[in-house]
Amino acid sequence: MNATSPAVRARGLRKNYGGVPAVSGIDLEIAPGEVFALLGPNGAGKTTTVEILEGYRDRDGGEVSVLDEDPQRAGRAWRARIGIVLQLASDAPELTVAEMVGNFAGFYPSPRRPAEVIDLVGLTDKARARIRTLSGGQQRRLDVALGLIGGPELLFLDEPTTGFDPEARRAFWDVIRALSGGGVTVLLTTHYLDEAAALADRVAVLRDGLIVAEGRPADLGGRSVAEAIVSWQDRDSTRSMRTAEPTRVVAGLAARYGGEVPGLTVTRPSLEDVYLELIGGRS
Amino acid sequence: MTATTSTETYIVTDTSRTPLPSVWRVGWSRGQVELKAFFRERQAVVFILAMPAVMLVLLGAIFGGEHTGSGATIGDIYVAGLIGGGVMATSYQNLGMSIAFERERFTLKRLRGTPMPAAAYFGGKIIQVIVAAIAEVAVLLIIGVAFYHLQLPTSGTAWWTFTWVFVLGVAACSLLGIAASSLPRSAARNGVAVITLPFVVLQFISGVYVPFFLVPAWLRGIASVFPLEWMCRGMRSVFVPQAVTLEPGHSWQHGQTALVLSAWVVAGLVLCLTTFRWQNRQDR
After folding, report:
1. Do residues B171 and B163 lie in contact, with contact meaning Cβ atoms separated by under 8 Å?
2. So what's the ipTM on this one?
3. Which of B261, B222, B221, B237 is closest to B81 using CA atoms?
4. Contact predicate B53/B140, CB 8 Å
5. Per-residue model confidence (pLDDT) at position A237
6. Which chain B residue's Cα is nearest to A90?
C-alpha cells in the first residue's frame, strides 16, 4: 500500500434497496493506522456502508477505494489484506477453537500463528474446546480471532462487543489498541458511545444514510467549544454558571477563594448528549 | 482476554507479495474440517449414515427371507436399493441440509469474506461426501454379506459398473443438494419439508424402501425422471444381477442409466451456478 494514500476512501457513496435510499451520498476518508468509528441508530446505513467497503454489496453510485482497490472488483489477494468480524456468525459447533482458527489460517498467504491469535483474544484455555461449548462472549472472541488470523492491514468490526460483560469489553479494547499500535487500520461500528470515545481516533455519526457529524470524539458536534458549565459550592448552596470561557471563570473563582474552589466541576456536553441531539433531528 | 506480551509483537507487514495458497491446498484443508464436523455431528451420523443401515436391518428382518423367483431374495434386493438411497442421503440430503444451515448461520458469508477460493469450499464438500458415501456403502455391504448371504461380485465389469454409477450418482445428487439448499426460507423451520420430504417420497417410488418391481407402473414412470431410480437400478445390476427378470423390459439399461445420470449432472451444475448464494435472503 502506498503510505500516503488513505486506507479507505469513499466519495458520494449511494445505495438503494428497491428504490428506497439506504445510503444517500457518503464521503469517508480513513488514514492508515487510524481507528475510525461509525455511529448511528439502527437503519441509519452503517451496515450497508460497511458491507459495501467489505465487498459484500455493490453500490449504486459513488467512488470507493479500499486499500487502493475497488472492493466490488477486488480479488483474493485483496481479501487477504482485510479482516472482517461479522455481527452474527455461529458455525461449526463440533470443531474446536484451534481447528477452526487453524483452518482459516490456511486461507492466507502469510497468516499469524493460530496459537498467538488465540492467545491475543484470551481463548488459550479454550483452544481445545468444541465451539458449541463456548459462551456467547467467547464465541464473539473467536469471531475476532478469525478476523485477525490473516494478519490484516484493515480490520472491519461490526458491533464487536455486543453481549460482552464490562470486564471483557475493556479487555477487548486493549486488544484493539494493541492492534492499532501495530499499525492496523480499524473501522468499527458500534452502539456504545463510550466504546467509540475510548477507541476511536475519529468518529462519524450516520443518520438516514448521511453523515451528520464527523470528528475527534472530543470535538464531535462542537463539543470542545460548546458552552461549559462551571459549578462550585458556595457556603450551603451549589452555584453554577454557563460560560464560553470556563478557564477565566475558574481563575476568577480561585482568586476569590484564595486557592481551592470548594466542589469545583467544569462540564461540557457529553458525547452522549451530542449524539442524541445529532440523531434526534435537531442537526 | 488479556493483552499479553504477544500483542506488542503484532505489527502489520506488507504481505501483498507472498503468493496465495493454492486452491488444492485450501480445498484439502476444507475437506479435513468438513469430515471432522460431519462425523462429530451426531444428528448427521444418525440421520444420514445410520438411517439406511437401520432400514436395511428392519426391512430385511420383515421381508428378507422371501424369494422372488429370480434367484435373489428380497433381502439382497434391499441391499442394492438401500445402497442407491444411501448414496443419495450422503450427497443430496447431507449437502442440502448442511449448506442451508451454513447459509442461515452466516458461515458462508464469513467464508466469502476471506481469500478462500469458492472452488476450495466445494472441493471440501466433495471430499466429505465421497468419504461419507463410501462409508455408507461399506456398512450396507457388510450387513448384506453378514445377514443376507449377499454375494459380492467378482468380475471387473461389475465393479466398473459400480464405480461409474456411484460417481455419476454422487455428482448428480451433490449438485442437486447444493441447489436445494437455497430453497428453504429457513433451514431450521422448513428444511425438512423442502429438502428431505421429496427425497423420502423418491425412496418409496424408486426401489429403495419398496422393491421396484412392486411399484405401480405410473409411479415407476415418475421415478424414472429422477436420478435415484437409475442409481438403484445400476446398483441392482451390480449386486443382484440374477434378478434381471424382475426389471422392466428384462434389461438393466446401462446406456440409459448413464445418459439420465449425466443429464442430471449437467442440470444440477446449471442450477447451482445460477442459484447459489453466499448470503441468506433476509440479509440484503
Report:
1. no
2. 0.85
3. B237
4. yes
5. 86
6. B105
User: Which of A138, A196, A145, A205 lies closest to A175, judged by CA?
Assistant: A145
Rounded distance, CA B199 to CA B249, Å? 26
| CB B229, CB B88: distance < 8 Å | no
On whether residue B15 sits in a domain, the answer given is no
Q: How far apart are CA A266 and CA B5, in angstroms?
A: 38
- Whether residue B249 is contained in a domain is answered as yes
User: Residue A63 in 3-state DSSP?
Assistant: strand
One-letter amino acid of B215: V
Residues of A in contact with B2 (CB under 8 A): 122, 171, 174
For B168-210, the pLDDT digits (tens) are: 999 999 999 999 999 988 888 888 889 999 999 999 999 999 9
Phi and psi torsions of A233, nearest 5°: -100, 120
In one-letter notation, the amino acid at residue A152 is P
Residues 6+ apart with CB under 8 A from A42: none
> Considering just the CA atoms, what is the radius of gyration of chain B in Å?
21
pLDDT score, position A282: 43
Containing structural domain, residue B65: 22-274
Q: Nearest CB to B117: which of A76, A95, A168?
A: A76
The residues, ordered by sequence, that sit 6+ positions from A196 with a Cβ below 8 Å of its Cβ are A37, A39, A188, A190, A203, A217, A271
Q: What percent of chain A has pLDDT over 90?
A: 45
Task: Provide the pLDDT for residue A277.
Answer: 77
Residue ranges of chain B with pLDDT lower than 70?
1-17, 282-284
| pLDDT tens-digit readout, A200-233 | 999 999 999 999 888 888 887 777 777 788 888 8
Look at chain B and report how many structural domains it folds into: 1
Q: Which amino acid does the sequence have at B69?
A: G
This prediction has a pTM of: 0.85
**Per-residue DSSP letter, B211:** -
* Mean pLDDT calculated for residue range A155-167: 83
Contacts of B33 in chain A (CB under 8 A): 92, 95, 99-100, 103
SS3 label, residue A66: strand
